[in-house]
Amino acid sequence: MKPTPRFRNLAGGFIDRSEPIAFRFDGRTYVGYRGDTLASALLAHGVRIFARSLKYHRPRGVLSAGAEEPNALVTVGRGAHAEPNLRATQVRIASGLVARSQNRWPSLAFDLGAVAGLFKPLLAAGFQYKTFMWPQGGWRFYEWFLRRAAGLGRSSALPDPDRYDRTHRFCDVLVVGGGPSGLAATAAAARAGAQVILVEEQPTLGGALRGERRFSEGRPLVEWVDEVARELDADPRVTVLRNATAFGYYDRNLMAVSERLDDAPPTDSGEGAPPPRQRLHHIRAREIVLATGAQERPIVFPGNDRPGVMLASAARVYANQYAVRIAERAVVFANNDSAYSAAVDVARAGVEVVAVVDSRPDGPIPAWREMLEELGIELVPGCIVTGVRGRRRVRGALVRKLSGEPQRGRARFIACDAILMSGGWSPAVQLVAQSQGRLWWEESLGALVPREAGQPQHWAGAITGEMELPEVWASGVSAGEAAARAALETTSGTEENNGDAPAATSHAAALELPPLDPGLGNPETLGPPALYRQLWSAPEQPGAGAFVDFQNDVTAADIELAVRESHASVEHFKRYTTLGMGTDQGRTANVNALPLLARELGVRTPEVGHTRWRPPVAPVTLGLLAAERAGPHLAPTRESPMQAWHLTALAACKRGDVLRPVGLWHRPFSYPRPGESALEAANREARHVRNAAGLVDVSTLGKIELRGEGAGAFLERIYVNHSHPLAVGRVRYGLMLRDDGHVFDDGVVARLDDDRYYLTTTTHGVDEVMRHLEFHAETVWPELGVAVIDVTDQWAGMALSGPRSRDILLAALDPDDDARERAEALGFMHWMEANIAQVPARILRVTFSGELGYEVHVPADWGLRVWEWLLARGGEFGIEPYGTEAMGILRIEKGRIAGAEIDGRTTPIDLGFEAMLPRAADGGGGEPPRRPIGHWGLSRPMMRESGRKQLVGLRGERPIPAGAQLLDIERAARYGDGQKIAITSLGHVTSAAWSPNLEADIALALVRDGRGRMGETLVATSPVTGEETRVTVCEPVFLDRENARARA
Amino acid sequence: MLLIPCPWCGERSHIEFTYGGDATKVRPPDDAPDEAWHEHVYLRPNPHGPHREWWHHHAGCRRWIRVLRDTTNHAVLGAEPANPDDSTNGTGGADE
Which of A137, A152, A732, A851 has a Cα-to-Cα distance from A243 of 20 to 30 A? Predict the structure, then answer.
């Protein structure tokens, strides 16, 4: 058994001494107990420096005992598990925990970066905008060095191996904060019949009560808290989330809560997936009770950043909850009475409290005076601490009388190794502000209090500025009751609140606050806080900063400087000084900054206003926000009905890597044979389609059914090229435009019946097309009575292509009726229905490759069967499957447009579809002509002006880089010779391929006035790949311009 | 995180919806002058206060609805079907 650490008392506190826990900090092993935080366990060993500061690399001690900690940031875990910037005051120690201090090199005790402290004048507020701006371009150099020297912990660059979880919850009443008022509110709301969720940041309930020494009839009040906790846990209406932080308050009472599930270090061993480390709760509550309490404020005085200067309430928590003495000798520096209970408790824990320096001339209420006398603590009223002796830790306090005038003569020196400060209490109003509520500067508290709720919300306890326990507790009861009443009113009449619900628990313990014993710890009264402006009027040590924001190194002098440089608005001021912009979100800094800023601006504090609080209240790890949506679960994966076949085929050729993501789909690029590269295979496939036949899976195409009496008229408006009705049994290409005349999607339409149409869209376009169709069907032309449904997943599609495809189709059709005769007679752009392998199929004679071809659409469940059937029946005709690359090569050879050409900036005129457009005379008769969507946009003169990019083909001397820019060859040459001339792009390559059928490098491109450039030679250059080639402009159709193959 | 009372489905989180723009815009007749079309296609006011807008319940009933939303505070003040006289109108959003 190791000896008890030097600063740990043998008895007292809420730690389990029977369970020592070994952990490591900066390479050394320490022992703490179950219940300890990293901060309390290290303080017990006498560790005082936890980190170095951001800018000046000041040594950093622990300031607080809770979530507001700005200083003691550590990195916990190793390797991929390493999590930086955790607050040592929030990290529970666990066996094997490994933590490192941050922002120091080479070590905490001797930090080279601290020389930056010598350059402090250069690093004042706004330094990033001024100091390092010279010479021009120098910033890059300075930045490298500054980023190295500054910054917080480093996050691991490895993928996060931890798992995170996510839930959505709903409740009548959400209570944030498990202190006395939160407990009372929870119990009261539950008793009233509400479903309640209570969120508490600490592992135990009780809030501030756990750090205080209060008694009821001789019994510690904490025992009552535990009883209340048991009651709440037992109530089926109540869910208590411990270790959970409400970090974001969003619209309509949605609260985001991060719950830490396991503070033990993760292990990589073991089978299966590890349990989640954290859970994100989205809680939608009818009513929310904010019982977030209050935060003790630091006092802004020179040297207030030395390790050993701590919030008085924090020292009290270390004494009472962890049985840790934070120092040998302490001076308390306060402007209110709450610090006296801290002084007393810390003294009782064994710290020699030398004096209480109280800025109020009259000091505390008499009861406290008497108690100090009893304990032999000197009271120094009407005085302030004006300086701190000691560089790396506190060695003494300099004390002077508080006066408006500069003081002459020597200050009184009091030797000590800790200064416990209390500048009053600030309600924790972040969530109120986030919820669009209004805050009010309450002069008597020197802090912001909630004034007006922005959402269905109630306040309980110290957040209102109320600090006395009986009142705090009572406000919890009434807030809980009011919240339950309001929540149940809105649900009245629904089934949730009668009969089956479990009987309400009485919550006897929670709903009666035990009588408090007089004496030590009770009573506490807050006196009026002293004026902050007077607390640093006489800096004792030149150069010693009086810090306002401990984490971001912002001093009182920085605030003066910012105002001197005209940053008058509180928001500008914040960005210039970075005050409140650290990971602690300025919890201890913001409220102190406001009166300082007001003083500099010469206005009253309320006139300064306050900066806007935004989520998160406390840092949230990004992995939690992603939760399960990482890796393969980032987005859903869509699979073709024939996916299993593709996987088997690719596995057989041992080429799983040719499965390529296309949107959410994974499609085979090609089907390589042994020894073949993926591209060689694609070239073989593309050649084979033109010479024999191929089969490609096109199930990913969007498929839509449209029905209604007016469906035909509807499509005539949706497609720009449908100026006359489509006959049943016919198929037509369709081009969709936006109102502004630009192409939006394309596909084919088959008329199934008088009032039924079957549409295909591009693979990527189906969602937008659906939206577009539904919008126009429902809101623009509802009188047409059109219904639209996305049937993409209901139909498998495969395209049979090549000169032998008719033979294959005939061989594949079931012989039971006249299907074969009909198929033989099926004309180009017609469709028919027939059975293949006993599966009813829609057979559309359309082609993307330009060859004789058929698209076969069958119900998705039968897709694999028909696919295999076609391949089997087509065997004697040489059918082979082909992938997306061959499909792409074939369509480029035919000049067909796809995603790269439909980029939202091209019109049908640009793409060469002029002949398809309705002519002015269309519609005829007495009726004014019906105009399709996009007609107006296209009719504008600018759409036909010269200078627009037009679709052309390119033939290259060498491979044409996709995405290449096209340049004038002469100018490019002069530029290449070093002439300083402007060189502008004439266009760009949209799709490029080596054509195995033409044995040439070809491409499609959008070129300024391209149709007038036939035969011109340009330079295609890719700044990305560095490739460059000469290209000749040509017609965009490279093969079979008469379309004889398709019509064969 | 808004809640939108879909007239067909009841109150749902806004992640089920897609914003569809200004619902006060009326498509001009085909032969309307250029100015009318220009205004319809390109010009949108940015009102301060209640604004009637289209929302598409894409992850629900897939209907387009008109939502009255206050642009100053995100308060959703009401929602109605695209066609108030639609005989198939649901009552999901109404109290029963």
Answer: A152
* Opening angle at CA A287, ends A285 and A292, nearest 5: 95
- Contacting A residues, span 769-808, partner chain B, CB-CB under 8 Å: 770-771, 774-775, 778-780, 782
How far the first Cα of chain A sits from its last, in Å, is 93
CA distance linking residue A487 with residue A194, whole number of Å: 8
CA pair distance A315, A345, nearest whole angstrom: 9
Least CB-CB distance to B64: which of A254, A282, A775?
Answer: A775
Read off the tokens for A36. 């300890």
Q: Is 70 exceeded by the pLDDT of residue A147?
A: no
Long-range contacts from A230-234, C-beta under 8 angstroms, 24+ separation = A231/A187, A231/A505, A231/A507, A231/A508, A231/A509, A231/A510, A232/A183, A232/A186, A232/A187, A232/A190, A232/A198, A232/A205, A232/A507, A232/A510, A234/A505
Contacts of A784 in chain B (CB under 8 A): none
CA A552 to each of CA A70, A125, A582, A704: distance values in angstroms, whole numbers, following the listed order? 9, 10, 6, 57
Structure tokens at A298: 């630091």
CA distance A57 to A59: 6
Whole-number Å distance between alpha carbons of A86 and A91: 7
Residue A656, SS3?
Answer: helix
Interface test with B, best of A168, A249, A252, A438 (most B CBs within 10 A): A252
Share of chain A above pLDDT 70, in %: 88
pLDDT above 90: percentage of residues in chain A = 59
User: Is A928 an interface residue toward B (CB < 8 Å)?
Assistant: yes
**What average pLDDT does the structure give for chain B?**
88
Query: What are the tokens at A691?
Result: 């010479």
Residue-wise DSSP of A323-390: -B---SEEEEEESSTHHHHHHHHHHHTT-EEEEEEESSTT-S-HHHHHHHHHHTPEEEETEEEEEEE-
Pairs of residues, one from chain A and one from chain B, whose beta carbons lie less than 8 Å apart: 59
- pTM exceeds 0.80: yes
Q: Which of B30, B31, B64 sits opposite A774 (nearest CB)?
A: B64
d(CA A355, CA A365): 16
Helix (H, G, I), strand (E, B) or coil at A619: coil
Over range A413-434, report the average pLDDT.
93
